[in-house]
Amino acid sequence: MSLLFGDPEFWVLIAALIFIGVAWRPGRKALLGSLDARAARIRDELDEARRLREDAERLLGDYQRREREAAAEAAAIVAHARAEAERVVERSARELEQALQRRQLLAQERIAQAEARALSEIRSLAADVAIAAARQVIVAELDESRAAQLLDAAIAELPRQLH
């Protein structure tokens, strides 16, 4: 054992152990305190990250819900616009059909009026031609005595035709 007490390395080892023992007590509190503070800071950062993640998930859910609502609203607007366009097309087709029918009836009425006018003009012209022809025949074949008899007969017949 004397060998051990005489060895300088032994005393360096003892001195190192004593130094570690003396330094460990106050250093341990500081080291453990800094580790505890770091652990608390990491825990706080993890909690903050968890809160941020939850907020981000909540915001994402809100945005996705809003997007679905907007898409549904857009689809409803498009469906309404299509239905309105179909109603407008149908109404326009009906109005066009009615306008065409009115124009066709108006054209038929005008044609009928033109036909009636033409018939009236033809009858009038035929009567004028017949009267002119009858006049020529009567003038050519009628003498004065026969003309007087026909005139007297026509005058006598006139009151009966007026009633």
Draw up the topology in text.
Blueprint: H1 2-6, H2 8-141, H3 144-162
If you had to describe this structure to a student in words, what would you say it looks like?
With 163 residues, this protein is mostly helical. It has one domain. It is built from three helices and no strands. The chain is rod-shaped and about 200 Å long. It starts with a helix and ends with a helix.
Uncertain regions: pLDDT < 50 for 5+ in a row?
A: none
Structural domains: how many: 1
Largest sheet: none
Strand content: under 5%
Compressed to H and E, one letter per element, the order equals: HHH
Number of strands: 0
| Overall mean pLDDT | 87
Give the count of helical stretches: 3
Shape: rod-shaped
Question: Level of helix content?
Answer: over 70%
Derived structural class: mainly alpha
Question: In whole angstroms, how far apart are the ends?
Answer: 179 Å
Question: What is the gyration radius calculated from CA atoms?
Answer: 64 Å
Quick tags:
rod-shaped; 0% strand; 163 residues; mainly alpha
Describe the structure in brief.
This protein is mostly helical and 163 residues long.
